[in-house]
Amino acid sequence: MVIKKVTVAGSGVLGSQIAFQSAFKGFDVTVYDINQEAIDKAKARIKNLRPAYHRDIAASDEAFDAGLNHLTYTDDLAQATKDADLIIEAVPERPDIKHDFYQKISTLAPSKTIFASNSSTLVPSMFAADTGRPKQFLNMHFSNQVWLNNTAEIMGSPETDPAVYNEIVQYARDIGMVPIQLKKEQPGYILNSLLVPFLDAAEKLWINGVADPHTIDRTWIIATGAPFGPFGILDAVGIRTAYNITAAELPNKPELQPILDKLKELLDQGKLGQESGEGFYQYPNPEFKQPDFLKG
Ligand code: NAD
């Protein structure tokens, strides 16, 4: 099957980006959300992407407008699913909501439709039975700012049909992503399987009093040539998200409690990272961008 009509379900932070990027690359995209209020928010979010598309990928106004013209919006799930070749699910990261969503669309969507989840932490075998079509179900995980940070991590369950997997790899390429092909299920995919332990290790060095955040980052930047250290990355991810990820790990890793307490202190002081202008660094000109920082 050639994918032509795409529905993105859940039009929050990531869903709105995935929908617009697909439309920008010429696909007809239906944006579904639960009510008119959510849809109005999605329209505003998508409209607000224009400066970023200009700045980051030199998109012209004409190209951006052409993308907008490929989008339609609905809060009617039957309408949203009835003719879709592909449904990309970006509803909240809550298993109850996702189970319910897949059970609903399992009967509404035609048998041809492929379902792909953008879940960050939940593997596809958790929902395969709900979909009524486990062979046509897999995860396709985008990174925030999809037009710029353009990985699509593609991960099937043991039941996913390899032909469907390959169609999604092609779709990822067609919308300007670099498809990252996982051979088996892995919570956290590749990126977060690397990143989360790296950030945990940096936070432990800090909490245990081995070194302060700037020294830890300086070490990483000088020794590896990377543009950021772990605390610069935490500021970019956002301290709220870092807090939520650490809180989710806590039941299995109680030793992270002091880190959680420190992140909470930052949140209480309104230091949310780049988005609030201060986290471990001050923005827009963080110390790690200044030449003296690396001299120590
Ligand atoms: P969000 O809270 O910004 O958006 C969720 C949207 O889903 C909202 O618009 C909400 O109205 C809608 N929604 C709620 N219930 C729904 C339902 N039953 N059916 C359809 N829509 C419903 O969330 P988000 O950050 O965009 O995350 C969505 C998914 O994308 C999650 O699975 C998350 O793990 C994943 N993800 C998020 C990021 C990120 O950086 N935010 C990155 C990669 C993947």
From TrEMBL:
InterPro entries reported for this sequence: 3-OHacyl-CoA_DH (IPR022694), 3-OHacyl-CoA_DH_NAD-bd (IPR006176), 3HC_DH_C (IPR006108), 6-PGluconate_DH-like_C_sf (IPR008927), 6PGD_dom2 (IPR013328), Mito_3-hydroxyacyl-CoA_DH (IPR052242), NAD(P)-bd_dom_sf (IPR036291)
Domain of life according to the entry: Bacteria
Pathway this chain belongs to: Lipid metabolism; fatty acid beta-oxidation; Lipid metabolism; butanoate metabolism
Region (Disordered) residue spans: 274-296
E.C. designation(s): 1.1.1.35
Keyword set, alphabetical order: Fatty acid metabolism, Lipid metabolism, NAD, Oxidoreductase
Protein name: 3-hydroxyacyl-CoA dehydrogenase
